[in-house]
Structure formats: structure tokens, C-alpha cells
Amino acid sequence: MAYSNTAKETINERVEALLSKMTLKEKVGQVNQKLYGWEVYRKTDTGYELTEKFKEHVERWDGIGVLYGLFRSDPWSAVHFENGITEDVSADVANLIQQYVKEHTRLGIPVLLSEECSHGHQGLDSMITPVNLGIGATWNPELHEKLMAAVAEEVRAKGAHLALVSTLDILRDPRWGRSEECFSEDPYLASQLTEAVVKGMQGEPGDFIPEGKLTAVLKHFAAQGNGTGGKNAAPASIGERELREIHLPPMISAIQSGALACMAAYNEIDGIPCHANGYLLNQILREEFGFKGAVMADGCALDNLVALTQSREKAAALALENGVDISLWDDVYTTLETAVETGLVSEEKLNDAVRRVLTLKFKMGLFDRPYVEADPMKGKEQAEKINLESARQSIVLLKNDGILPLKKDIKKIAVIGPNADAIYNQLGDYTPFQREDRVITVRKGITSLASEADVVYEKGCGIRSGDRDGIEKAVHLAGSSDVAIVVLGGSSARKFDAQFDLNGAVVNTTGEEEMDCGENVDVANLELGGLQLQLLQKVMETGTPVIVVLIQGRPHAIPWIAEHAPAILSAWYPGQMGGQAIAEVLFGEVNPSGRLPVSIPRSSMQLPVFYNYKDGGYKKDYFDQSGNALYPFGFGLSYTEFRYENLRVTRKTITADQLLAGEKFSITVDVTNIGDRDGYDVIQLYLKGKGLSITRRVKELKGFRKVWLAAGETKEVMLELGAEELQVFSSQNTYKVEQGWVEIEVGNPVDSLSAVLTIG
């Protein structure tokens, strides 16, 4: 009996009509995401076939709610080009899944296919973009919205419906291996980019997801970036005010933009795991913030609740009661039928979760159009241009003693270092296997751009290894070259011989493993690993001019490099087009415009070093070391210079009631490009709150604009502050616009203008 409907019914009516027909077993099947997607198919000589494991799962619950990672490729899944699903056949396999479920279940409810999209789709033949730290460095939400729209179009054309995207984690400790998945240490910047993700992937809010769009599942809710000691999934030892000021703003922006799904975080907050935290998921997220979407569990996270409950059934009831709608790989939600039948949780609670799952399916139009046309995305060329531009704008120029930009008449260029020509080191964690011609490394980019020069290459050393065999070769090449470009940093590249946990996180990185970043790869020491610093020092001893390029998933501590290297670029993990973007910046074809989304520390010993610490009047410096960052949040150089003048505020006093009614402070500044090169500037607006009921942070980002200025050009830039930017979580534990005065700074961390505003 396949489900049918009339076009005039609303989504709610269709959901309720379908729900009323479902058995308890079918309901439990809709909230389970038990299978690993690569277990459900087998590649044969003639195509693809479905496995018995998949068919048994369909039979067990008379359907499937959500299927994870059908197209996933990486060393954990052991899916590659020989045995995986390439882009040209993705739609065929997706349709095979839908057809089987439609024809072999009582109600024929279609399946939601969920895919990892941390920085592009983790599937074969996918566009891989800069990681989130790189996107944060662009300070360009408009560009990121376009990039996410391109990713959505590609993934939807393959037949998937849910994109798992990291947006909610705020980076408070760079020792954390998942630092690369964070947009920033700052909640405002992360909120603006989260909004861009939702708009780009889902389109404008409405009854249905538009064609070529899909649902973004935002990860991770909440406070995972505040894990104790920078350790993955560690407790977040924070109070509610820290939670609300730092970690919840991106989700608030997401909800305002129409977010339909999020993923709960592994960590606990004040002793309560997020997956069992009804105050967080039900009271704050749903009742207070008005979130109507679905909450997905993180991989195997519900299994961890058994330690609390001593029973899988009780763990299932606990998670369902406290707001988790969809499981992921665990053996807990498979027991929900028993949990309901024995009275551990009500069937109405299960119905609520099923409603949310079915609503997503109706919004995706799956009941009317369960199949996807076997037609790859049409906008590939434009998508590649957007990806390249994102890589360009993600690059931060940290230091330049005048050596950059390079002249193209250089005769011999030495390209040296473990990240100079390593495809996977450039791409980050959650990366599928690549066709080598799809990735432009730094070596390839420089060779292509400086076509008249003799470009020579030597790896020199590894990321972590102690093998010094290549150092002398690298030194010899540098000594006989006109310039040496030394590409250092980290790697999140997984290998087949690594050990993986049940949720795909790396367990062991000993032996030959070079990975020093990524999920579960947390470090105590933020200095560059292995012999990298020694390699650089020996190259610099040759007297050849040196430029350091850092390809990295976290901010490394680089005090020696900052003091001695003539020029430093931070390129994060810049994606498939990264090598071209870096080469264009080195040779001045692109004026660097990235600004730091996170503070760069001097050492691990001074952590935390984020810029927006609480202003409690305490001494910031240590007795033996500065407390300030080596390079501050928001910092970044250009090949030109900018001047700020004539700061104006239309009204310097507005009452709290007027602000709550929608009035805003309007702030205007004149920005002039006083150099001889065109380029972007990022005008930043910081607030310093005074005279309120709580201690404030030394400063807080509350606005920014990225503006293109021709050489010699002046532009008037306007920024606004309203109730949303000025409210605080008050001493009465409510959001409130309090009377008092605030100081504002407009400009950048090293050059700004200030004014005082009064809230009457």
C-alpha cells in the first residue's frame, strides 16, 4: 500500500495523515540512521547491486528513515574509485535505493540520504573547498553563500538530501584537532557565515526546499569548541552565560535564516551530555529560540548514554525524551520499540520525532519526486571559479618585509617543504579520495604561473617524522636559487593503516602516520611538528630570500618564524584550488585580503588567547611571557594600505525602548586606499560595553564590511548597531538591552577610530 496524497494538502496535513497509518515498528524505522552507506551497495562488473544487509534492514522496520554516507569515500570507509560511486552514476544508485524501498515496504516512504559536507561533499569527484577556518579568514559571507549554493547543487544532483555541515563550533582552544571545522573564535563572525550556509544550501525559507537545494544539518550543538584541554568530545566546563554569549549565537542566526536541522554535540555541559540535555534541546532550542526542525545525533553518541542509564532501552528513552529525533549508527534507537512498549517513553514523544523526519521528506518533495535525474550539476565551471575565489580570499598575509609580491622575472625558484606538493595535506579532514589532476598544489601553482622560471622542488622533511634525509637536498636547492618558498604546517590526511573508532575518528596516529590535526587528533604543543623548523632554519642560513607559507588546520605557534622570516602567508587548508590561489598571491596577481578568524598564540603555555576575554581587571601578562597573541584576531596585511577618517554617528543616544522597537545606531566611516594597488579591506566594528549588570569582554565584534577599493579611492562605509547586537544576557538571566554607555572601535586591530554611544 503506497502512500498517496492530493496536492492541495498542507505539509502538516500530509504528515498527520501518514503518521496515522504507521505502526510502531515503522515509526521506529523513520528515526533510525543505523547503516553505514557504503555497506548497502556492491559494485559489480555490470553496475551496482544492493546488499543483503540493506534489504534486511528495510525488512526489519518496513522502511528506512535516513541513510548516512551512501557516497562517502575515505580511508575509514575504504571507499575509493575502484569500488565506490563516482559522480556519473550517483543518481542511478540513489534511485536504486529509493525504488527498492518504495517497492518493498508497506507505505513506500522515501529515504533521506545524508552526506558529509564539511568543506565540500565527502564523495568521489566532488568539489573540495577551503576548510571553515579558511572561510572564516575570508570575512565574506556573500561569497560563502555562493559557494554553499554550488556545493548544494552538486550534492543534490547526486541524489542526496541532507548535508552535514560544521558551522556551530566556536574555536576556543586551538589544540583541538577539529579546529579546522570552526569558522572562528568569535560568535558574530561565525553567525554571519552560518547564515550564509543556510541561505546558500536551502534557499529562502518556504514550504518546500527549492530545486537544486537541500537541507543543511548544522554541527554541533553546542559548545563543542570549548572542550577541556582542547580534547575532542571533552566536557565543556562553562556556565550558562558563556554558553549563551559565545556558543549559541550561530544557532540563533541559523534559525532566523530558516534552519531545518542540526546535530547534537558529543560533549557534556555542566555534567549533562548534550544528547540527554532537554534544557538545551527542548527548552532553549525549541521553546525559547523557536526551532522547528530535526535534531540528529552524532555518530554513536547515543551509545555513550548507556553509561548513564545502564540500559540501551533507557538510553533510547532518555535521548528521545530530551529532544533527539534521528540516530546515527548507534545500537540505542534500535531498541525504541521496546522502550515504548515497556512504558519508558511515550509513543507521542516518538510521534514528535517522526513528524520532524517526515516534514523534512515532504519539504524536500520526496513523496512527489523520489527519484533524481541522472544529470550532473550544470554549473561546474562557475562553481570552480567561486571555489578559487574563496581560496584567494582565505589567505592571510601575516608578515611582509618587502619581499612580496615576487617579480615574474625570477630565474630560479626553490619550492620546499612537506606541504609544497602533498595533495591530501592541502585538503583537510573529511576528504574523499582525489583524482590527482583535480588538485593544484603550491608546486603546481607556482610552476604554472612562473612559467619562465626554473622551479625546483624538494620535500625536505615530513610533518611529524624525524627523517632528515631530504634536508640537505632542500638546503642545496635553496642555496642555488633566487628565492625559496618553504611550505610548512600540518596535515589532517588520513591513511589506510590508521586505526579508527566506530564513529570514524582516528584512534592512533603513531608509527608512520603524519596526521597532526583532524577529528580526535588533539595536540598539547602548538609548535610545528617534526623537523619543520630545523628545515626552515637551515634553508634561511643559505642567505637565499625566504617566504614561508603555512598550510594548516589550526593556528600554530610560530614565534621564531614571525621574528626571522621575511614574509609569512597563512593559507589554512585551501582546497583543490589552493595552490593556484597561493601562487597568485605570491606573484601579486591577487592582493591578499584574508583577516585572521582566530588569534595566533605565541605558545600553548599562554592559552586561552582568544581576543574577547572577560574584562575583570586582572593582569593579562604572565610573569615569564606576554599574555597577548602573536597575531591578533582580525589581523591581516595587504599589498596596499588603508586609512580611516571621519567617524560619524547619526545619533549618539538612543533609549533601550527605542532600540527594542527597531531603531539603530548608524555609524559611518570614510575608508581610503592610500596605496598604489587595488584591494579589499575589512572594516571591523568592535563594542566595549560599560556600566551594565555583568562584566563584559574587553571587546566584541559586532559588525564588519569587506569593501573593494581601487588605488586612491575613498568609500563611505556604514555599519549599524541595534538591539540584537547591544543586548546582553543580564544578571537576571534574561536577554536585555540595558541602560549605560558603550565605546565602539571602527577599523582593524592595529588602526581604528573610536566613539562613545549611550543607551538611555
What would your notes on this structure say?
- The protein has 760 residues and is α/β, with parallel strands linked by helices.
- The strands form eight sheets. Strands 3-4-5-6-7-10 form a six-stranded parallel beta sheet. It has a six-stranded mixed beta sheet with strand order 11-18-17-14-12-13, with helices on both faces.
- Strand 17 (546-551), helix 20 (559-564) and strand 18 (567-570) form a beta-alpha-beta unit.
- The longest helix is centred in the N-terminal third of the chain and has 18 residues, at 87-104.
- It is globular, with a radius of gyration of 26 Å.
- The protein starts with 10 loop residues before the first helix and ends with a strand.
- The model is unreliable at 1-6 (pLDDT under 50).
Gist of the model:
The protein is about 30% helix and about 20% strand. It is built from 23 helices and 28 strands.
Helix content: 25-40%
Given the helix and strand composition, which structural class is it?
alpha/beta
Give the number of helices. Answer: 23
Tally of DSSP β-strands: 28
Largest sheet: 6 strands, parallel
With strands numbered from the N-terminus, the spatial order across the biggest sheet is: 3-4-5-6-7-10
Uncertain runs are 1-6
Overall shape = globular
The rounded Rg comes to 26 Å
Average of pLDDT: 95
Terminal Cα separation, in Å?
65 Å
Q: Tell me the β content.
A: 15-25%
